[in-house]
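Example S7 (structure tokens).
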């Protein structure tokens, strides 16, 4: 559908021009909705359709969306309110902030509106970007341009911002900015979105009311997400555990008690449902009673109770799954984790043991992943054509618990490097595993502790960095972006080396026990035999 385009600033129009523009857009909107209504009325199943239907999810979704897709109980009024604001008659660019605590359903609500079939046709173009706490403007702009044009985008920040602006200019667009954490992040993005009278909308989710108010301006109504009721909590728990089947009568009373103790937070309800589903017999009353006893609410705040429930879910994990789950703490926030890479890391770490039911360790790893997904501890973001997992993610609240447990148990040490100076950073790491997350600039690190066995590096920059390692017992060396010349003098002594990336400069590894011909075996990693 062609959009009505207004190239001049709306502030320069006289009243007659404004009226003409508004009438044109209103007429256009009415014609479109009437057309959709006629289509539904002519359908054989028209009487079974809601007034606004939903499109099926696409294959590549955010890490939150895939698992949260079913969490719609209690969101009906919120969804209708957001749709009304998206369809508002105003031709001016509208910012619609959604505010609420983590796990309350902000992303789910935004995704349901974003995937609505009528909305997707009403707007000329649309895109979804996730900002998160570790905000990188260039990365966000590149992702936004890729989402709009479906192509890889390179260039400076200024070039990317200009290309995004040009791509949106003159078009009615819908942009979702998920997980905004600071006013500075909004200041770095807002000039990228043209306000040319096309009736565009920006849907923004955040946990912080001041960020929402700042982005939406003083005259914008902030949409505040509330906890769902006890009845809605029970309905959601039943839906997640039993699907379309009814709950056995003997479990209703204890089930309602469990739902009440989840504090009205959808995420905790989904996690508890995952606990119940993972039990050998989900309909055993003893299983429900045990969970109810362990999450009985005596905490002074909702946040503490929710944290207790999520920690309880981790504590109930089988021993074989705990290291696999804690390993997720090594990855950056909102990172889309490639399953094939994760499985290779698990194999190299020795987490996976042979099983009579599976032919290889990767099959064992896939079964572990599916178990963690079933327990609602990990989220599916992409699937392959054969139905197997391609990429996974984790909710922010669960990630924080994962990090806390990993550090408390001495399982992993996280070093987040965000300074812009070029001096050497010394890392004293008492843990076996070290993950380095570099957010900006060229860096040089020196790992002082000799007990390190695994090093993983994640960098937002394309520039090469330097890493000096004193340990001679390295097993895993996943460090893309590190020049081979920076550790070629020591890699020949890594007798326990099991996995390292093939993309860095390998030509300097002349003394290492690795043949150049081995590089063709795996495009991204080399996994040596045990």
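Recovered sequence:
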């Amino acid at each position: 559908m062609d959009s009505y385009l207004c190239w001049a600033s709306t502030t320069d129009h006289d009243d007659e021009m404004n009226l003409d523009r508004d009438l044109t857009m209103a007429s256009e909107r009415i014609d479109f909705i009437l057309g959709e209504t006629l289509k539904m009325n002519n359908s054989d199943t028209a009487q079974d359709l809601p007034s606004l239907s939903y499109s099926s999810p696409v294959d590549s979704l955010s890490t939150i969306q895939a698992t949260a897709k079913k969490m719609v109980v209690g969101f009906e009024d919120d969804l209708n309110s957001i749709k009304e604001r998206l369809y508002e008659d105003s031709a001016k660019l509208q910012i619609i902030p959604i505010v609420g605590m983590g796990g309350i359903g902000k992303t789910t609500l935004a995704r349901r509106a974003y995937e609505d079939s009528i909305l997707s046709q009403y707007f000329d173009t649309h895109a979804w970007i996730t900002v998160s706490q570790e905000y990188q403007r260039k990365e966000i702009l590149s992702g936004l341009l890729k989402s709009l044009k479906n192509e890889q985008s390179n260039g400076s920040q200024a070039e990317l911002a200009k290309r995004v602006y040009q791509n949106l200019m003159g078009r009615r667009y819908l942009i979702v900015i998920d997980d905004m954490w600071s006013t500075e992040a909004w200041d770095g993005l807002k000039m990228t979105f043209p306000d040319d009278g096309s009736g565009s909308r920006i849907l923004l989710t955040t946990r912080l009311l001041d960020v929402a108010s700042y982005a939406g301006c003083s005259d914008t109504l902030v949409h505040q997400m509330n906890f769902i009721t006890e009845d809605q909590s029970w309905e959601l728990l039943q839906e997640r555990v039993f699907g379309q089947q009814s709950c056995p009568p003997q479990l209703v009373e204890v089930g309602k008690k469990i739902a009440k103790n989840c504090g009205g937070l959808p995420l905790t309800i989904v996690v508890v449902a995952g606990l119940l589903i993972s039990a050998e017999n989900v309909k055993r009353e003893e299983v429900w009673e045990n969970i109810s006893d362990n999450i009985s609410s005596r905490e002074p705040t909702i946040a503490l109770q929710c944290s207790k429930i999520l920690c309880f879910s981790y504590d109930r994990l089988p021993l074989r799954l705990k290291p696999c789950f804690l390993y997720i703490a090594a990855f950056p926030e909102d990172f889309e984790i490639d399953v094939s890479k994760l499985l290779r890391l698990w194999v190299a770490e020795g987490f996976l043991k042979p099983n009579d039911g599976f032919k290889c360790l990767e099959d064992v790893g896939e079964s572990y992943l599916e178990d963690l997904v079933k327990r609602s501890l990990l989220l599916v973001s992409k699937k392959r054509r054969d139905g197997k997992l391609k990429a996974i993610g984790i909710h922010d609240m669960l990630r924080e618990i994962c990090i806390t447990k990993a550090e408390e148990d001495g399982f992993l040490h996280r070093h987040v490097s965000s300074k812009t100076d070029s001096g050497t950073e010394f890392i004293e790491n008492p843990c076996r595993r070290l993950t380095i997350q570099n957010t900006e600039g060229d860096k040089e690190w020196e790992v002082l502790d000799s007990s390190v066995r695994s090093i993983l590096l994640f960098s937002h920059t394309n520039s090469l960095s330097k890493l000096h390692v004193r340990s001679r017992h390295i097993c895993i060396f996943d460090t893309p972006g590190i020049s081979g010349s920076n550790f070629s003098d020591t890699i020949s002594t890594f007798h326990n080396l099991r996995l390292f990336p093939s993309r860095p400069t390998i030509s300097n590894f002349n003394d290492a026990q690795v043949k150049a011909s081995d590089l063709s075996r795996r495009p991204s990693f080399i996994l040596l035999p045990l």
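Notes on this example. The chain has a mean pLDDT of 75.
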